[in-house]
């Protein structure tokens, strides 16, 4: 770098390195998507095209950033999880967040016409905000994922009932809102079933559970690889570091793995027990081609 008298300005930059050995979650959220969804006539309560587009953009982000172990999306938001051993960008928060936000947004716009053919985008174009949050334990990380999935359930049950009252019941938005004020889950299930013959349990999983994206390896029988989920919180970062060759091998296997979008329960232990690679960050076996 050439020396100049102006160079001192670089020292005004603030460090923003995230703590070592913590799970990093970058959550992005669409800006003003309530308005955006009206502008493009999203079907209510759930526009399948819009969800598929979010998932496609998130999948592209995971492909470009192999350090992401799992992602979870609902509505106009996506959470991307970096393993606690991740060293990408030396764990600098703004580098991680801005890279994810811009990569996601670029793909969202790039892929838009595939999911909304004949509906061209016009300004204001879609944009996303983002933040990084650190979780010190596997329990905190899993609670984070559970929090988002419970939010998905609560919002979807509300929205499904709200829109049934309007679309099938002929109510206006104000009356529907009033009708649902203070209602419990059981009340909403009852309204759906008794008035509209809708059994909420039979609603599509993609709407009830949201979308989870991860690298797919052979599932593990619960109980046979319990040690893989062990929390190595007691080890030092040095001890956790893998040998260079092992790291290279893992990298190759990770690149070979198929990235899958599913709509599973991430709250139950089973999801994590059958996929020990998510928490261990050691790639599993690549399934044989069917
Ligand atoms: P902010 O900029 O504060 O995030 P917002 O308008 O984006 O404001 P959110 O709380 O993020 O508010 O909610 C996103 C909104 O986008 C939802 O309430 C819903 O109206 C709409 N939306 C997002 N995805 C879909 C979808 N797949 N189908 C229908 N509507 C959707
Ligand atoms: P910000 O202005 O910082 O973006 P926000 O209101 O958009 O805040 P997020 O932090 O993006 O909220 O949170 C995402 C979702 O989490 C919200 O749509 C809401 O359902 C839920 N949420 C937000 N704040 C709380 C809270 N204090 N307690 C429980 N749930 C919350
Ligand atoms: Mg939003
Ligand atoms: Mg949102």
Describe the model.
The protein has 290 residues and is α+β, with helices and mostly antiparallel strands. The protein has a domain at 17-149 and 205-209: Alpha-Beta Plaits, CATH 3.30.70.3000. 44% of the residues lie in helices and 14% in strands. It has a 6-stranded antiparallel sheet, with helices on both faces. A hairpin with a 2-residue loop joins strand 2 and strand 3 (77-82). Helix 2 packs across helix 3 (93-115). Its EC number is 2.7.7.79. It catalyses: a 5'-end ribonucleotide-tRNA(His) + GTP + ATP + H2O = a 5'-end phospho-guanosine-ribonucleotide-tRNA(His) + AMP + 2 diphosphate + H(+). InterPro entries: Thg1_C_dom, tRNAHis_GuaTrfase_cat, tRNAHis_GuaTrfase_Thg1, tRNAHis_GuaTrfase_Thg1_sf.
Beta-strand content: 5-15%
Instruction: List the uncertain runs.
Output: 226-230
In this entry the ligands are: adenosine-5'-triphosphate, magnesium ion
CATH topology of the domain at 17-149 and 205-209: Alpha-Beta Plaits
Helix and strand sequence: EHHEEHEHHHHEHHEHH
Number of strands: 6
- The CATH architecture of the domain at 17-149 and 205-209 can be named as 2-Layer Sandwich
| Helix-strand category | alpha+beta
How would you classify the quaternary structure?
Answer: single chain
What level of helicity do the residues show? Answer: 40-55%
**What spatial order of strands do you see in the largest sheet?**
4-1-3-2-5-6
Number of helical elements: 11
C-alpha geometry: globular
N-C termini distance:
54 Å
């Amino acid at each position: 770098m050439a020396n100049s008298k102006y160079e001192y300005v670089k020292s005004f930059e603030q460090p923003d390195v995230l703590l070592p050995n913590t799970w990093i979650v970058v959550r992005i959220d669409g800006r003003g998507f309530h308005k955006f969804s009206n502008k493009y006539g999203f079907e209510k309560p759930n526009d399948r095209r819009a969800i598929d587009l979010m998932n496609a953009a998130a999948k592209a982000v995971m492909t470009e950033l192999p350090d992401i172990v799992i992602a979870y999306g609902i509505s106009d938001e996506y959470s991307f999880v970096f393993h606690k051993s991740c060293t990408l960008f030396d764990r600098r928060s703004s580098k991680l967040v801005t890279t994810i936000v811009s990569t996601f947004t670029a793909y969202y716009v790039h892929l838009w016409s595939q999911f909304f053919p004949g509906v061209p985008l016009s300004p204001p174009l879609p944009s996303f905000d983002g933040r990084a949050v650190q979780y010190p334990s596997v329990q905190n990380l899993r609670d984070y994922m559970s929090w988002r999935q419970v939010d998905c359930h609560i919002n979807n049950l509300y929205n499904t009932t709200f829109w049934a009252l309007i679309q099938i019941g002929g109510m206006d938005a104000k009356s529907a809102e009033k009708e649902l004020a203070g209602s419990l889950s059981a009340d909403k299930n009852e309204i759906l079933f008794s008035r509209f013959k809708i059994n909420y349990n039979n609603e599509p999983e993609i709407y009830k559970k949201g979308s989870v994206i991860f690298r797919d390896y052979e599932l593990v029988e619960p109980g046979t690889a319990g040690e893989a989920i062990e929390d190595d919180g007691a080890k030092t970062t040095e001890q956790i570091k893998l040998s260079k060759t092992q790291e290279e091998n893992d990298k190759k296997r990770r690149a070979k793995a198929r990235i899958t979008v599913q709509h599973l329960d991430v709250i139950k232990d089973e999801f994590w027990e059958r996929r020990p690679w998510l928490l261990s960050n050691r790639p599993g076996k690549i399934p044989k081609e069917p």
